[in-house]
Amino acid sequence: MSLLQHVDHLVLAGDDLQAGIEALHRLLGVRPVMGGRHPNWGTWNAIISLGPRTYLELIAPDPESDLSADLRPEIFSGAGEFRLTGWLANVRAPVQVRQRMIEQGADPGEILTGSRDLPDGGLLEWSLSDPMTCILDGIVPVMIDWGDSPHPAVTAPAGCRLQDVELRHPQDSEANAILLSMGLPAVVAPGPEPVLKAVLQTPRGQVTLD
Q1: Which of 12, 1, 6, 17 has the alpha carbon at shortest distance from 197?
Q2: What distance in Å separates the CA atoms of residue 56 and residue 74, rounded to the nearest whole number?
Q3: How many CA atoms lie within 13 A of 124 on its CB side?
Q4: Dihedral over Cα of 164, 59, 40, 153: its sign
């Protein structure tokens, strides 16, 4: 079982979304399109498709929000240039999956509902595990279920593909047990420090994000 089919999206966090859009356009050869705003976290985003149900999300503080930075999840927080801060896995029935994770000693927090306004005036809705909860330095993903909402990858700019994701952690056995409880493959390799890398095929050639 390939991990790639379970990757919903990768998160690149930084401090200036407009600058990030320009930098990623130069790097990948595809220009991210504005996604929307997340009032609950004080962020806004832009996205690029990486496949039929996979995308890359750039996320940064929303200049129109006065929400305190300490209320922003770590996965959505970055200083300076954009970096890969985490990933989300597409998981059906996240409430049931949460129970299995708790049995492994890894509580992902409550299952929340989220939404963001779309540029066309529509609303995108989803459920996800609490992004304020970080398990094993973000090597264990946040869960997300889009329910009946259209997947963002469908309308995001195309041209890039996710080729590989590398996960490493000193507690690889524990991480893999948690992934298995989520219905994901045990692909975390041992390493002296946490590593999250993604390899993309782009119009500019192969690009590695970390």
Answers
A1: 12
A2: 17
A3: 19
A4: negative
- pLDDT tier, 125 (very low <50, low <70, confident <90, very high otherwise): confident
pTM: 0.93
Question: Tokens 């790639």 map to which residue?
Answer: 4
Predicted confidence (pLDDT) per residue in 155-184, tens digit: 999 999 999 999 999 999 999 999 999 999
Question: Would you list the domain boundaries of the chain?
Answer: 4-158
Could you say which architecture CATH assigns to the domain 4-158?
Roll (3.10)
How far are the Cα atoms of 27, 36, 127 from residue 120, in angstroms, in the given order?
Answer: 27, 10, 22
Residue 94 CB: number of other CB atoms within 10 A? 22
Taking alpha carbons only, the member of 151, 99, 109, 118 closest to residue 45 is 118
Report the alpha-carbon distance of residue 128 to residue 130 in Å, rounded.
6
* Count of CB atoms situated within 10 Å of the CB of 4: 16
Say how far apart CA 32 and CA 28 lie, in whole Å: 10
Residue range 10-47, pLDDT digits in tens: 999 999 999 999 999 999 999 999 988 888 889 999 99
